Amino acid sequence: MSNARLTAAEISQLWGSYLNDTLSVCILRYFLAHVEDSDIHALLADALAISDGHIQSLTSFFNDEQFPIPVGFTEDDVNVNAPRLYSDTFMLYYLQQMGALGMNAHSMSTALSARPDMHDYFFACLKQYGDIHEKANNLLLSKGLFIRPPYMPYPEKVAFVHKKSFLSGWFGEHRPLVSLEITNLHENIQRNMLGMAMLMGFSQVAKTKEVVQYLLRGKDMAAKHVEIFGSVLSKDDIPAPVTWDTEVTASTTAPFSEKLMMFMTTALIGIGMGYYGTSMAGTVRSDIQTHYIRLSAEIMKYAGDGAKLMIDNRWMENPPQAPDRDELAKP
């Protein structure tokens, strides 16, 4: 079965993984050059070794299939000698989210893989990112930094919905949030706060006017989303997570290329859209659904503008695509 041609699904996952792992190497190398906490340093080193190993495996897959190796990100995209831009605490939160996002991405990659070698590779990656996530969580807990989702009382008995007002949220009295809605709101706040802090740093060090404006727009948009989701929680007297503004230094020297910063920004946007879609499916309260629909449209517009900016600057690598049959048919 390993001699079978790669499917479009497998190609897409291999190609995307290569870009993401080469990006991770750049970011982790920079973090390692500045981290002071020995425990966080060790976990960053583990994460870097994992990404380096992935790149070696992915390169072998591409070579075996006589598939052109993507450019991705290289030493030209990182300056490890640039001053510190983010705190040790931010780096640890980054590792936690890296583990969570890696598990989500590679569970999908595993499910999409038909060839046994592809399935085995992506499943191994899934377990590696699960290990990173667990270690990051344990470190956050040991340092008193873990931001727990809100607590709620246990239900006293099983009950069924008997009023259609369970679905409403805009007019009259709305019901309290259910546990899944609280979870999704909390996690979307967390991810937006990570993006907000990262874009704050990126906007300080970017030099191109259009890129700076785009990054600032993204930071403000993330802050607005945090405020909206937090207000929904606060109406039910549920605390929202604190912001991470203080985890960004005042440095204005770029550790990363603008190509890398733009790719990272658009990647976070794509991930955010996916989570918003999942969150919308997990709620039936109309006001929360409306928030997700409206904010998803906003970030889709932002993502499209980012793609145009990347194309204008020749920063967007062309993903593998099907042949244009009409063009091939021309005499």
Tally the beta strands: 0
What is the overall silhouette?
globular
**Order of helices and strands, N to C?**
HHHHHHHHH
Unreliable residue runs? none
SS strand fraction: under 5%
Mean pLDDT metric: 92
Largest sheet: none
- Structural class based on helices, strands and sheet pairing: mainly alpha
Per CATH, the superfamily of the largest domain is Ferritin, core subunit, four-helix bundle
CATH class of the largest domain: Mainly Alpha
Q: Share of helix among residues?
A: 55-70%
- If you compute it from the alpha carbons, what radius of gyration comes out, rounded to the nearest whole angstrom? 21 Å
Total of domains: 2
Transmembrane segments: 260-278
Organism: Salicibibacter cibarius
Pfam families: DUF3231
Keywords: Membrane, Transmembrane, Transmembrane helix
Top keywords for this entry?
9 helices; 331 residues; Ferritin; mainly alpha; 64% helix; 2 domains; single chain
What does this structure look like?
With 331 residues, the protein is mainly alpha-helical. It folds into two domains: 8-142, Up-down Bundle (Ferritin), CATH 1.20.1260.10; 174-312, Up-down Bundle (Ferritin). Helices cover 64% and strands 0% of the residues. The chain has nine helices and no strands. The protein has helices spanning 8-32, 38-64, 88-112, 116-142, 179-205, 209-234, 258-281, 286-312, 325-328. Helix 5 packs antiparallel against helix 7 (258-281) and helix 6 packs antiparallel against helix 8 (286-312). The chain is globular. The mean pLDDT is 92.
